């Protein structure tokens, strides 16, 4: 018994080292900008760079638009597929998996070829960037919503609301959405995380987003990119913590086993 | 005029016919059950009344108005689902008040009505709970209250007790019946459980493969089944193959032992025919000289609580006999030879 515990802890320890050591090294390096003292100088430099602020604001804006567009597009679609076209679910799953299979660079060249000449001239508009991000975030957003919909009895809830006189708008906003809260939050944060650090599409479409900014910085400076990497880690973790915090409590899918008690 | 009327209702899913030429008249305040095995079309018929399915052919009249083309949210029908379907994000009070909110009732009105129905189901103290904080039985009572809160024209229940355990099922069954009587609400109830259908309903519609087999009171359905299907589906039944001796006199032979029915048999002499005998119609003794008597060997004795089921081998046939349990009951032993008595009326000849 004791022996098996030792091995378990050893594996956890090794795993921890594998994960935390590079992170620690990055953190330590980012604090070494001033000679012989640890300081936040690299962080100050990054935060005071107007280019960083511009790139971050731009990426955050794009993330918000991507999230909104994804929600409007994916939630009603996934809901309708669950309710009326359950046979189409495997097809939907296949489609939503495509962004994993098609590299972002292929996607972006396809977009440039299709939208850089009339009748649809979008290549210089952020609309195309958001559209590409919606595609990139599709697997995460669709999966989150799909899992959320599977956890509730969509059909019975919809029919119950209908029999009580509710129309589609009320059913979606008062019955379905509130019960998908955790799932929607999950999809939203994942989308945010993807968009905020995305490089390939933003670079190819020549937008000064956070991804290209980080790469540019990495080519020119030493300590600032490390500081940026640590900051992006903190941002991601903060998002996850926020997700955990907002996702608990009432709403969402109630634990099934609790409902069966007598 | 009937309050709810289904006229020549047919529902096809592509080539599959789920319900065919279904006709029913339900009076105001009546409790009607649809009883049948899975896939018999009972739930589809209920869903057509609710508006969740559209009838391919036929009319559905509620209070004289054809509602076939009306969407479900404009039919004023209360529905209770097998899975309760309470809104997980709302408290008991909000669930019950949902339909009233949709109907734009005033806050005061909603509060009063929610209190009324909570009182009706004896769950006043649960108003602030969420569905996941309640047992299945409690959730289903709230679902019933929610359906009743909107004062629907018709109440539909789709196997509402199937997901509950036996004891709660009987309790809730009685509660549903008493609330239905109290409110006088026209009710259609779908179930595959014959005990539920027989104990709750004013009338039962027995369905099979999309057709109506029989419509009648529970007494009629049980005692005078119109078709072999009804006879075999409702209650436990012994089905026995017998030889016809004299069709006009209703004389038959079960394993070379003569028995008679009261009615002529529409078969030729020496033909084989199936007869049905209810286990509770069989006795170990009889004072009636006209009773049928056959002898056999006791194969097994099963104690079921209120009833003792004795299985008897008669030649190659096996027959079950139910005896009411009481402390003075004298039971034979396995392997004993016994005489089994049953009246001529008990012997139901099944037409193939």
Instruction: Estimate what percentage of residues of chain A fall within beta strands.
Output: under 5%
- The first-to-last residue Cα distance of chain A is 38 Å
- Categorize the overall geometry of chain B: elongated
Order of helices and strands of chain B: EEEHEEEHHHEHEHEEHHEEEEEEEEE
| Total DSSP E strands of chain A | 0
> How much is the radius of gyration of chain A in Å?
23 Å
**Count of folded domains of chain A:** 1
Biggest interface, chains and residue tallies: A-B, 30 and 39 residues
CATH class of chain A: Mainly Alpha
Percent of residues of chain A in helical segments?
over 70%
Report the span from N to C terminus of chain B. 37 Å
Low-confidence stretches of chain A: 250-262
Compute the average pLDDT of chain B: 92
Question: How would you describe this structure in keywords?
Answer:
heterodimer; A: 262 residues; MetI-like fold; globular; B: 352 residues; alpha+beta; six-stranded mixed β-sheet; 8 helices; 34% strand; elongated
Short description:
The complex is a heterodimer of chains A (262) and B (352). Chain A has 262 residues and is an all-alpha fold. Chain A has 13 helices and no strands.
Structural summary, described in words:
Chain A has 262 residues and is mostly helical. Chain A starts with a helix and ends with a helix. In chain A, helix 2 (41-48) packs across helix 12 (223-247) and helix 3 (50-84) packs antiparallel against helix 9. Chain A has one domain (38-259): MetI-like (MetI-like fold), CATH 1.10.3720.10. Chain A contains 13 helices and no strands. Chain B has 352 residues and is of the alpha+beta class. Chain B has helices at residues 42-50, 92-102, 107-120, 136-149, 166-183, 194-200, 218-223, 228-233; strands spanning 4-13, 16-26, 31-35, 57-62, 65-66, 77-80, 154-158, 186-191, 203-208, 211-216, 238-246, 251-254, 257-260, 272-277, 292-303, 307-314, 317-324, 337-342, 348-350. In chain B, helix 5 links the parallel strand 7 and strand 8 (186-191). Chain A binds chain B through residues 152-153, 156-157, 159-167, 170, 174-175, 178-179, 181, 250-255, 258-262, and chain B through 50-52, 71-79, 81, 83-89, 98-99, 102-103, 130-137, 139, 143, 146-147, 150, 165, 168.
